[in-house]
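Work Package 3 (structural annotation) set out to generate three-dimensional models for the target panel prioritized at the project kickoff. During this period the team completed the workflow that converts sequence records into discrete structure tokens, so that structures can be stored uniformly alongside our sequence database. As a representative example, we reproduce one entry of 554 residues exactly as it appears in the project archive.
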Amino acid sequence: MRRPRARLVLGLGIPLLIVVVLLAAWAIDSSSASGKVPRNVTLGGRDISKLPEDELANTVADVADHYADVEVQVRTPERTYKVKAGTLGLKLDQKATVQKALDLDEDTSLPGRPFVWASSFLEERSAPLAFTVDDAALEKGLAGLGGNATASEPSLVPGANAITILSGSSGTVIQTEGVADQILAKAKDGDEPIIVNAKVTAKEPDVSDADAQAIADKLTAGTAKGLAIDASGKQTLIPAATVRSWLGSKVERGKLVVTLDAEKAKAALTDAIPGDSRTVDATVKLVNGAIVISPSKDGATCCAADTAARLLAAINAGSPTVGIDLEVSKAKFTTEMAQKLGIKEPVGTTTTWNGQPQVKSFTTYYDPGGGGRVTNIHRIADLVNGTVVKPGETFSINGTVGQRTTAKGFVEAGAIANGEHVDEIGGGVSQFATTMFNAAYFAGLDITAYQAHSEHFARYPRGREATMGFPNPDMAWKNDTPYGILIESTWGNGTVTVRLWSTQYAYGEQTGSSDSRSGNCTVVTTTRTIHKGDGSTATDQFRARYRDEGKTTC
């Protein structure tokens, strides 16, 4: 056998070697590029070669932002409009674009991939962009261009003598047909700006002038005699011109609908419908020594919530009359509530103070020539007089009167502050607090707040008295009876009296008193026995701490 020539071996071996080397290099490079973009690839003008998926996603997001701001020129026969692509619904599908870049060589057959790889060293490739257009955004974006002119619908024009119309007019609409396809094609081609052509069509009003005029004529005839109103038995006639002034129109679902100005109608009816519409609460008062209940009254104001609907229905039907209801506002405190309070008689018991019988009331005494002090006693009694305390409520002098000020009629007079005798606005009102304390004490009520004076005055019962300040000390008691309580507080020549009116339910009596020492003070403890309506009894105690003469503290 003859041996192959060396030249033939070389001729066959070198190309084969080149192929082997090419395949080896491709295999090595492809292995290192797994999960990455192939080499020498751009996306929207950006180099994405060898980028892993996460970095590629960031680049794609930047491209998406760019295309949202790309200018689109919408050309119509009349003019060209400029708008951002994002406004017309163009959006880069980022997930699909990323995947297409990573799968750029997937459509190439396996034998051909090494050659595609080799050519990438010589020629740059572009990864495709995946776009979508949102139809709703496109329609809205085109509608926002100046080329759209909304059709003007005819409307009713109310007048004193007749209802006329304002004619409608045609509008124009930039059509969406074919625009989305043009935007997508130009975006994929990388055109900037994106130039598209659009058609403009006329948009006629939904309602014709003839239909609107027919409605206006019907309303003119139907309101010619005005509108007779029956408002819960109260009649009035609203003139035609006034009724027509309430009317207007709007277009709904392609039809002209008559509207009514509810506020304007309500104002006219309120002026026209006679009668007292005030709501009055019941009151419980003491008149000439007897309890008098002034009845409550429900108010009736114009108009009930369905008034506008009733008026419009009558007008549309051409009816000359319509019945409406007044809006009833109920009294918060009714006659029945006042009667159920059971306020009918003085309550408490009979005791003696200052040598005088205290019959279901309590009176304290003072020098009628006491100047400002007397003025303040009279003023606070007047402010509290007539107060009604319902079952479960707590009466507080400070809560009822508030801070004593000159604006409320109080003046400067003597008082005690921090153990010292001083002058202050409202001085002397403790005389009233003490009187109130004793009235509540003998009525068997739950006394919830009190503080005795720091020194004893002969004008007050020893151990049964209360001083005042603001906001404290306060004098307060709770109505723990099933009946209401009316406070009668009156004054005369050197006297102030508190009498509590209710239904007799319980009463209290002093059943004990003891003294004890505490430093420079004497503590007086008073025991009260409460007799209840069911025959049971209960006791409680009250304490007064009086400092020794010449001392300011205990």
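Residues 223-332 form a domain with the Ubiquitin-like (UB roll) fold (CATH 3.10.20).
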